[in-house]
Automatic annotation (TrEMBL), chain A:
<keyword id="KW-0206">Cytoskeleton</keyword>
<dbReference type="InterPro" id="IPR022083">
    <property type="entry name" value="KBP"/>
</dbReference>
<protein>
    <recommendedName>
        <fullName>KIF-binding protein</fullName>
    </recommendedName>
</protein>
<dbReference type="GO" id="GO:0005856">
    <property type="term" value="C:cytoskeleton"/>
</dbReference>
<keyword id="KW-0963">Cytoplasm</keyword>
<comment type="similarity">
    <text>Belongs to the KIF-binding protein family.</text>
</comment>
<dbReference type="Pfam" id="PF12309">
    <property type="entry name" value="KBP_C"/>
</dbReference>
UniProtKB/TrEMBL annotation, chain B:
<keyword id="KW-0505">Motor protein</keyword>
<dbReference type="GO" id="GO:0005874">
    <property type="term" value="C:microtubule"/>
</dbReference>
<dbReference type="GO" id="GO:0000278">
    <property type="term" value="P:mitotic cell cycle"/>
</dbReference>
<dbReference type="GO" id="GO:0005737">
    <property type="term" value="C:cytoplasm"/>
</dbReference>
<dbReference type="InterPro" id="IPR019821">
    <property type="entry name" value="Kinesin_motor_CS"/>
</dbReference>
<dbReference type="GO" id="GO:0008017">
    <property type="term" value="F:microtubule binding"/>
</dbReference>
<keyword id="KW-0812">Transmembrane</keyword>
<keyword id="KW-1133">Transmembrane helix</keyword>
<feature type="transmembrane region" description="Helical">
    <location>
        <begin position="139"/>
        <end position="165"/>
    </location>
</feature>
Length: 581, 490
């Protein structure tokens, strides 16, 4: 058998067959492959083609400090080592050593692997960007990055990645040969394929860097390298080399990346990513995941809208606080940080902060449309969690829109909508299976009642018509029962009693629920005495809990001082009311 | 009424007894007791010495035992410098245990026979039984001592039973233990994590690998130390890491113990209508399959799965007040798609659905009613067969597929109100085969393990990106099917 054939067999064993190794001997094929590669050192190289001889004309072998090294020959220099055969032999040996070193590092012998790989790197260092060597060099650097990260030496790994980066930039004009062509150049391979293979290796470098920066918790850099990886994958897609490219995956990753930039308030970039994701879906041939992903991307748009509205209102409030013109503080980037090479339609919605009700309404309507079409996929029966989240998003959208609305009647209507939506959901889903969701819904429902009550009180100065009084007491009752139900979900399942201590993440909601209930009671116009007593009880519950669990104070500092005052004031009020009777 | 005859007999016996009593009191009591006590002391000392020698002979080459002894001694006497005393003690004992035993044995036979001769003398004096020649007497004493030697180990064994039980139930509870794991409410925790360490393999023994794991049952702690470069270096304080679990099992632990202490309470609660999940997690060759499956043909090597089958059907057989229905389903999750291992059509993919009232469930999953152990084992075997046939044509399949065997136990009981009450419990037995390879190959939705290695496969780029995202946002992945399925109704 020829050397090349045996080499390819070993490569197959090392990278393909090894995936099927039995559990008890996970490295069986790797060890066998290592043996094969070692044997190949003794194998003679078959007759050399003129092509490879020609390539070796520009490559020279020198002996420096007892270390044999490749260097690139300058045109006017003479060759130290004129024999192409010797150079070829040495290069093939390095290639075999590269595989052996990689196997060492793959089989938990990282130290051995690294020292072997380092020694190869020394031998080729002065000639890294030679067309025969650069593929080997880039692969080698990738391996060294992997080894360094496995030792958690991320900064050193980044240093190596920088060298890979340099190498890549220097090799932009060269035609890198494939690794196996170091044994025998295959003239049947088109240049573009060689280039693609090389590009793919560099894609891995950027992918590794994305992960390393993630480990270092440098999210910006990590996102940047994720973007670069996606960009490089897209290049592959454009160059018609689609065997490594999955449009659905790419679109999903792109949509996910948009959510990163969205949380960083970079709406232009987020919007660009989302548009690219949508665009890429056109290239997906029918796939069982397609409907789900399409609906999922709509949810990304919905979050985009919610965040944009909420950010806008925050910024407007800040502007009002600091007494500056809104334009100063809401100035936003309209140009994305980067652009993927895709021809996009015009943007479906704005990426600038909204300043008035009309703009906000546009965003709202756009998001509502996305919600409705996403709901047609995420139906309640079958996708409870997703459906409920979409409804929560709807409720959030209303609450953000209210900020820009000044008409109090319409504000009330929007809250009425939220309440209808949330309360109907609470009836639909089982508390046993979706406890977490039911809690969220009940709490939000209670809050809605509370705000609506405030609005109603503000709206009607004259509270004495019977109809209004009834309406208000109905609101109070509903609000209280929502929070009461919320609190009962916290009870111990077996004994149905209130727990002594709440988990940290529930301390604030639970105490707030008591706080809201206290407020509801104090707003009541009927049976004042009884309600004030109830109200006092609620505030007392909070004060008692905080006294028993001092660590709860940090969760509810502001409200606690109010409660404390109330527990002092309300008894006086009660006394007054009693006397008045 | 008593007859005169009986009265007379009683009086006679009483008189004899009182005479005997007086005699003892006046003449012999103290001198004889002192004599016997003297012989006893003389004979016990060499006996103790030889026993001690035997113990050290037996455990001489068991380093693990010695280590534990040493540790306990150090814990009990924490003074500085005491270590050295113990060390020298251990050394001299291990060298001279044989000689010590021989000497002790001979002396104890001699002194023992003296004891019996002494007792015989005393009895002769008291009862004035027939005289024996000196030779006879010594011969008898020798026979007695041989009988004594045979019986003693049994006596010691039985008398130590309560002590052993005591030590298992927290004799060492007073030792300090980090608060997080010290909570005695282990049973009430919804998640229990136990660790089991397998013995060293022959291969490891051959290449004289060093054991770096120490297990402390009482404190439910395992500590891992760096392999010592020099064996003499014993100040291992900064190079050990201690981990606490709800329970720890070492290489000598029995399948039965693991089942009784960890799985049994869970299976019991399933029979009462709760849901439970058991899975084993660990690297290749750490004995996951042994713990979960074991050797079915040998009762004492049976793993958790066959034991839980036996347990369920045993409890059902012993229950008179309740009616039971046991159903079994078997599914496999590979690449986030679900396959029913019991269905005829193995190419069909199932959907995970959420019903507003019934929670997360797998749509169209087939289930079989099983009435005894054989039937449920048959269901499992059928599924395993389907699993392996599906695996051969896919790369990396086995290393990335999870299998869940679901046992649903429905029971109905006639309540006080005359209506029958039904409760349903589910036991999920999960096979996370080859989970460790995910670090190398990567799979979508896998956030199980925070590996230090970075992922080689571009297919997990999505994971890298989604890890960047937090706050109010949407990540367009479904959660891993495995976690969603197991989270249903806990």
């Amino acid at each position: 058998m020829k050397l090349l054939e045996r080499y390819l067999l070993a490569v197959d064993k090392c990278y393909v067959q090894s995936l099927n190794d039995p559990e008890a001997e996970p490295y069986k094929s790797k060890y066998e492959a290592r043996k094969l590669f070692e044997e190949l050192h003794a194998e003679n190289i078959d007759e050399e083609s003129d092509e490879i001889k020609k390539e070796f004309d520009t490559l020279d072998l020198i002996d420096e400090n007892n270390k044999i090294k490749f260097i690139i020959k300058k045109p006017d220099e003479y060759l130290y080592e004129p024999s192409a055969t010797k150079k070829h032999r040495y290069l093939v040996d390095l290639l075999l050593d590269y595989h052996i070193g990689t196997i060492y590092s793959d089989t938990e012998e990282k130290g051995e692997g690294e020292s072997r790989l380092q020694s190869i790197l020394m031998s080729i260092e002065p000639a890294l960007n030679h067309s025969l060597i650069c593929s080997l060099a880039l692969n080698l650097l990738n391996q060294l990055i992997l080894i360094r990260t496995s030792y958690e030496q991320y900064n050193e790994a980044i240093e190596i990645a920088k060298r890979a980066d340099n190498l890549y930039n220097q090799s932009l004009s060269t035609e890198p040969y494939l690794l196996r062509e170091l044994i025998e150049i295959d003239s049947a391979i088109p240049t573009i394929d060689r280039r693609d293979e090389f590009e793919q290796i560099y894609t891995y470098t950027s992918f590794f860097l994305a992960q390393i920066y993630a480990k270092l918790d440098d999210k910006d850099q990590s996102a940047n390298y994720c973007r670069l990886t996606l960009e490089r994958q897209l290049d592959m897609f454009h160059s018609d080399n689609r065997k490594h490219f999955d449009p659905l995956d790419w679109a999903t990753n792109c949509a996910t990346l948009s959510q990163y930039y969205m949380t960083k308030h970079d709406y232009a970039t987020a919007r660009h990513c989302l548009m690219c994701a949508d665009k890429m879906l056109e290239n997906v041939v029918s796939n069982e995941n397609l409907p789900e992903r399409t609906a999922s991307f709509k949810r990304c748009w919905i979050k985009y809208a919610i965040n944009l509205l909420s950010d806008s209102s925050d910024r407007l409030l800040q502007a009002a606080d600091r007494d500056v013109t809104p334009n100063e503080i809401v100035r936003s980037l309209t140009i994305p940080k980067f652009e993927f090479k895709l021809s996009l339609p015009s943007a479906p919605m704005t990426c600038s902060y909204v300043l008035d009700y009309e703009q906000a309404r546009q965003v709202f309507l756009f998001a509502m449309e996305k919600i409705n079409s996403a709901k047609s996929y995420y139906v309640l029966d079958g996708f409870v969690t997703d459906h409920v989240e979409l409804c929560q998003d709807t409720s959030q959208l209303y609450s953000k829109l209210v900020f820009f609305e000044s008409n109090i009647d319409r504000k009330c209507k929007m809250y009425k909508r939220r309440i209808d939506l949330l309360s109907s959901l609470c009836k639909e889903i089982s508390e046993e299976h979706y406890l977490y969701l039911v809690r969220q819904l009940l709490f939000e429902l209670g809050e809605c009642y509370s705000i609506l009550l405030d609005l109603k009180l503000e709206q009607k100065e004259d509270l004495h018509t019977i109809k209004i009084v009834e309406k208000i007491s109905h609101l109070i009752q509903s609000g209280i029962s929502a929070f009461e139900r919320f609190l009962t979900t916290m009870n111990d399942k077996k004994t149905n009693e209130k727990p002594e201590t709440y988990a940290d993440e529930y301390i604030r909601p639970v105490l707030l629920a008591h706080f809201y209930m206290g407020r509801f009671h104090s707003k009541s116009t009927q049976n004042r005495l009884e309600h004030i007593q109830q109200s006092l009880n609620q505030y007392k519950t909070i004060v008692d809990y905080v006294e028993k669990h001092p660590n709860a104070l940090e969760h509810i500092e502001q409200e606690y001082t109010i409660c404390k005052e109330m527990t002092n004031l309300l008894p006086l009020k009660l006394e007054k009311l009693r006397q008045a009777q | 009424m008593l007859s005169n005859e009986t009265k007379e007999t009683i009086t006679r016996i009483r008189r004899q007894l009182s005479l005997f009593g007086w005699k003892i009191l006046y003449d012999w009591t103290f001198s004889l007791a002192a004599l016997i006590a003297y012989y006893l002391l003389i004979s016990l000392l060499p006996l103790a010495v030889s026993l001690f020698a035997v113990v050290s002979l037996i455990f001489n080459d068991r380093e693990e035992f010695q280590k534990r002894m040493r540790d306990r001694l150090t814990v009990t006497f924490p003074e500085r410098g005491f270590n050295d005393t113990i060390d020298s003690l251990f050394n001299s004992i291990s060298k001279q245990a044989g000689v010590l035993f021989a000497v002790g044995f001979v002396i104890s036979i001699f002194t023992g026979s003296r004891l019996f001769v002494g007792i015989d003398d005393v009895l002769t004096i008291i009862y004035r039984i027939r005289e024996r020649t000196i030779l006879d007497q010594n011969f008898l004493a020798l026979k007695m001592i041989l009988a004594f030697i045979t019986i003693t180990p049994f006596i010691i064994l039985f008398s130590s039973v309560p002590a052993i039980l005591e030590s298992h139930q927290g004799f060492y509870q007073f030792l300090p233990r980090p608060a997080a794991a010290a909570s005695a409410k282990g049973k009430d925790e919804s998640v229990r994590v136990v660790v089991r360490c397998r013995p060293m393999s022959d291969k490891e023994e051959e290449s004289s690998c060093e054991r770096v794991v120490d297990i402390d049952h009482q404190r439910r702690q395992i500590s891992i130390r760096r392999p010592a470069l020099e064996s003499s270096q014993r100040n291992a304080d900064e190079s050990t890491h201690a981990f606490f679990f709800d329970a720890v099992y070492d290489w000598t632990s029995k399948q039965k113990d693991v089942y009784e202490q960890t799985a049994r309470p869970l299976v019991d609660s399933v029979l009462e209508g709760f849901n439970g999940t058991i899975f084993a997690y660990g690297q290749t060759g750490t004995g996951k399959t042994f713990t979960m499956e074991g050797v079915r043909s040998q009762v004492e090597l049976r793993g958790i799965i066959p034991s839980s089958f036996a347990h369920i059907f045993d409890s059902i057989a012993h229950s008179t007040s309740r009616q039971f229905l046991v159903r079994a389903s078997y599914l496999e999750i590979y690449n986030e798609s679900i396959r029913d291992l019991l269905s005829k059509d193995q190419n069909k993919r199932l959907q995970l659905q959420e019903h507003p009232k019934e929670g997360v469930h797998v749509h169209d999953l087939s289930s079989f009613i099983t009435k005894n152990i054989q039937e449920i084992e048959h269901v499992m075997t059928t599924g395993n067969l389907n699993r392996s046939t599906g695996a051969t044509n896919m790369n990396e399949h086995s290393s990335r597929s999870h299998a869940i065997f679901i046992i649903t136990v429905e029971s109905s009981e006639l309540g006080a109100d005359g209506k029958s009450h039904i409760c349903v419990g589910k036991l999920n037995l999960v096979d996370l085969a080859g989970s460790e390879r995910q670090a190398k190959t990567g799979s979508t939705g896998d956030r199980f393990k925070e590996a230090t290695n970075i992922n080689l496969s571009l297919s997990v780029l999505g994971n890298v990106i989604s890890a960047l995202v937090d706050g109010s946002s949407h990540v367009p992945y479904r959660d891993s099917k495995l976690t969603r399925l197991l989270q249903s109704k806990n």
